[in-house]
């Protein structure tokens, strides 16, 4: 029999501290679905997804019941659609999105990612058509998520595509004005997008992957927060930050192990290869499941106060260290997410005006992704949004890390107003954007920001 | 020529002290006893040990008892010796072991209540330990075999109902979860 304190600690993680498997995501290659006719291609896509993913939800539920750990989301990631639909018209791309959505509904999953293209070194005709189809494709569907990789450390940043995406985000938000611009929450713009990533909205099944694969995203900011609180309560003298980093590392190990166990069971039951575990602290709006709370426990009274970036750096690194040791194949984004709307404490900081966009941007240079789920005023124009994307992409490109932007310019709302998206997507005050309309000349140049040098690192 | 052997299950209980295991096993060795398996625990300062071993058939159970009692005449062991005439079937090691944790307010009949649930659902208890928690809470941990349970869904529903009825928190989880989160090697 195992030690009783270890058993009780694990029971508490699951029962009281919100440990769960955030997402089991099936990656499916769709390249062989391509046919001469768009209609036939759509039929093949639907048929292939349904064939492979038919058992995904029941198996996840069965494994979840057997092990006593919940699998919150079941998802699918597919080959970036620009590759599958190359040569088709805008309307055909919209129909592919519809086919994906129907398949997602039939198999009962939450979201399907992969309405995507890579344009970091230039925009192909297919990618341009996909970007043009994006507003209509997302409006016509409920479960399809889109992503565009506009930059990489190898090729630089495609600024023409960045400008286009500024416009697409605005259009998506305006088309879904009745839901607070929620359409924009299903689109992420990336630099260095990982090609196997279970988290939405940026999940894709990139080239060089298995035919069909199971990837898993774990979570558990609540588990880390409680472990830190226990450490602070049980030590007579104030622990050093290195000791807190150790607590985070060990906790990330435990959390990752749960994800790996569940993921491998799902993949074995389905007879599929296991891909990666994305070792991430992904918050939910639920109280006690917040990354922002960890920042407060680690010593800043307001999130956004000086020291916040340093804490995120420590947190992100410790999570990666614990997770990579725990898993045979850590991958994806792996680190600490700071999605504002989805994190009650971060949303509170925005409301209290302690966390401006610029500080969030600084924090994203050391967190695992980027400017995520941030509601901005609907009056912010497409060019300014493009410029915000450019700044974020530059951070990723220079630092050889993934960065992303998921902004929601909420139609009809201004800074300080409130928006709620419901469920896991949460709610937040609208974050003010300074210097709106002051980046037009910069964005007007277009072209490319060249790839960075790999020596003379200072 | 090998001496014919007889097998015994011996249980020994006494207040715990340094050297107690050595005293027992030395006495058994002096009688040419060959130990096959041992379990030992200390509860509230009381040492308890159950041994399985074989002795030459010239050594009677009475001799074994006498020799063990002579070890410490001031604090004689409580001893029980049972000859093993037939080998009882060892329970099959289940492919899937589960850990059932029960937490709730301390009360008379706590263990009986939880074990009653196990009987009702054909749950075989493989190992059991309890920890008096902080304050009024009582915690029980059971390693269980569910291979004879009808369906998992029925069991989960039964657990939910039991928790509500008795104001207890019974949680059932696969043992692999605990291995995965606490052991380096999977």
List the helices and strands and how they pair.
The complex is a heterodimer of chains A (458) and B (186).
Chain A (H helix, E strand, L loop, with lengths): L3 H12 L5 E8 L9 H16 L2 H12 L3 E8 L2 H4 L5 H18 L3 E8 L6 H15 L4 E9 L3 E3 H17 L11 E5 L20 E7 L2 H14 L6 H30 L3 E8 L9 H7 L10 H19 L8 E2 L7 H8 L5 H8 L6 E7 L4 H18 L3 E8 L7 E3 L6 E3 L10 H6 L2 E2 L9
Parallel strand pairs in A: 1-2, 2-3, 3-4, 4-6, 7-8, 8-9, 10-11
Antiparallel strand pairs in A: 1-7, 4-5, 5-14, 6-11, 12-13
Helix pairs in contact in A: 2-5, 3-9, 5-6, 6-7, 7-14, 8-9, 8-10, 9-11, 11-13
Chain B lengths: L4 E11 L4 H11 L3 E10 L2 E11 L4 H9 L8 E6 L13 E9 L4 H11 L3 E9 L4 E9 L6 H15 L1 E7 H8 L4
Antiparallel strand pairs in B: 1-3, 1-4, 2-3, 5-7, 5-8, 6-7
Taken in chain order, the helices and strands of chain A follow as HEHHEHHEHEEHEEHHEHHEHHEHEEEHE
Residue stretches of chain B low in confidence (pLDDT < 50, at least 5 long) are none
Average the pLDDT over all residues of chain A and give the rounded result.
95
Q: Report the radius of gyration of chain B as a whole number of Å.
A: 21 Å
Structure description:
The complex is a heterodimer of chains A (458) and B (186). With 458 residues, chain A is an alpha/beta fold. Chain A contains 15 helices and 14 strands. Chain A has helices at 4-15, 38-53, 56-67, 81-84, 90-107, 125-139, 159-175, 221-234, 241-270, 291-297, 308-326, 344-351, 357-364, 382-399, 440-445; strands at residues 21-28, 71-78, 111-118, 144-152, 156-158, 187-191, 212-218, 274-281, 335-336, 371-377, 403-410, 418-420, 427-429, 448-449. In chain A, a hairpin with a 6-residue loop joins strand 12 (418-420) and strand 13. In chain A, helix 7 crosses helix 14. Chain B has 186 residues and is α+β, with helices and mostly antiparallel strands. Chain B folds into two domains: 5-83, Alpha-Beta Plaits, CATH 3.30.70.260; 97-182, 2-Layer Sandwich (Alpha-Beta Plaits). In chain B, 29% of the residues lie in helices and 39% in strands. Chain B is built from five helices and eight strands; from the N terminus they run βαββαββαββαβα. Chain B starts with a strand and ends with a helix. In chain B, 20% of the residues are buried. The mean pLDDT of chain B is 88. The chains are: A alpha/beta (458), B alpha+beta (186). The A-B interface holds A 1-4, 6-8, 10-11, 13-15, 65-69, 253-254, 257-258, 260-261 and B 99, 101, 127, 129, 131, 139, 141, 143, 152-153, 156, 169, 171-182, 186.
């Amino acid at each position: 029999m195992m030690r009783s304190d270890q058993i009780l600690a694990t029971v508490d993680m699951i029962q009281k501290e919100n440990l769960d498997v955030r997402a089991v995501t099936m990656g499916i290659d769709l390249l062989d679905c391509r046919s001469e006719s768009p209609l036939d291609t759509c039929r093949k896509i639907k048929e292939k997804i349904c064939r492979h993913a038919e058992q995904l939800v029941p198996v996840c539920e069965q494994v979840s019941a057997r092990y006593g750990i919940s699998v919150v989301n079941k998802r699918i990631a597919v080959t970036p659609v620009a590759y599958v639909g190359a040569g088709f018209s805008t309307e055909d791309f919209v129909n592919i999105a519809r086919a994906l959505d129907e398949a997602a509904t039939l198999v009962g999953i939450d979201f399907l990612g992969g309405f995507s293209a890579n344009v970091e070194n230039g925009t192909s005709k297919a990618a341009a058509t996909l970007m043009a189809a994006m507003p209509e494709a997302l409006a016509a569907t409920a479960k399809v998520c889109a992503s565009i990789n506009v930059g990489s450390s190898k090729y630089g940043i495609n600024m023409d595509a960045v400008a286009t995406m500024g416009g697409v985000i605005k259009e998506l938000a305006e088309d879904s004005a009745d839901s607070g611009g929620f359409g924009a929450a299903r689109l992420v713009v990336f630099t260095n997008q990982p090609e196997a990533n279970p988290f939405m909205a940026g999940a894709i099944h990139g080239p060089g992957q298995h035919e069909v694969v199971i990837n898993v995203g774990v979570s558990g900011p609540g588990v880390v927060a409680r472990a830190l609180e226990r450490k602070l309560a049980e030590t007579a003298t104030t622990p050093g930050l290195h000791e807190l980093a150790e607590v985070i590392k060990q906790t990330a190990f435990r959390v990752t192990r749960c994800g790996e166990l569940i993921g491998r069971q799902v993949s074995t039951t389905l007879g599929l290869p296991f891909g990666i575990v994305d070792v991430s602290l992904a918050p939910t709006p639920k109280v006690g499941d917040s990354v922002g709370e960890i920042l407060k426990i680690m010593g800043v009274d307001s999130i956004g106060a000086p020291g916040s970036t340093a804490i995120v750096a420590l947190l992100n690194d410790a999570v990666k260290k614990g997770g990579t040791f725990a898993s045979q194949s850590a991958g994806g984004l792996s680190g600490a997410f700071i999605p504002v709307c989805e994190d009650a404490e971060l949303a509170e900081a925005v409301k209290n005006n302690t966390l401006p966009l610029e500080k969030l941007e600084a924090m994203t240079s050391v967190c695992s992704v980027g400017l995520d789920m941030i509601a901005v005023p609907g009056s912010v124009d497409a060019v300014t949004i493009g410029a915000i994307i450019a700044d974020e992409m530059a951070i990723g490109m220079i630092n050889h890390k993934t960065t992303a932007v998921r902004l929601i310019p909420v139609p009809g709302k201004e800074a300080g107003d409130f928006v709620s998206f419901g469920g896991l997507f949460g709610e937040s005050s609208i974050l003010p954007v300074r210097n709106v309309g002051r980046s037009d000349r910069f964005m007007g140049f277009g072209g490319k920001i060249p790839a960075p040098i790999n020596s003379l690192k200072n | 020529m090998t001496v014919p052997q007889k097998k015994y299950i011996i249980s020994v209980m006494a207040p715990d002290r340094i050297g107690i295991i050595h005293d027992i096993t030395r006495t058994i060795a002096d009688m040419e006893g060959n130990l096959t398996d041992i379990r030992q625990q200390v509860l509230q300062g009381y040492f308890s040990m159950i041994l399985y071993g074989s002795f030459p058939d010239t050594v009677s159970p009475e001799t074994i008892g006498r020799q063990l009692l002579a070890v410490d005449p001031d604090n004689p062991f409580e001893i029980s010796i049972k000859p093993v005439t037939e080998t009882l079937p060892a329970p099959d090691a289940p492919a899937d072991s589960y850990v059932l944790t029960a937490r709730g307010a301390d009360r008379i009949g706590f263990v009986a209540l939880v074990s009653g649930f196990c009987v009702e659902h054909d749950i075989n208890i493989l190992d059991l330990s309890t920890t008096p928690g902080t304050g009024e809470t009582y915690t029980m941990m059971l390693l269980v075999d569910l291979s004879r349970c009808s369906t998992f869904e029925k069991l989960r529903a039964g657990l939910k109902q039991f928790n509500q009825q008795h104001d207890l928190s019974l949680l059932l989880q696969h043992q692999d979860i605990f291995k995965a989160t606490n052991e380096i090697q999977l």
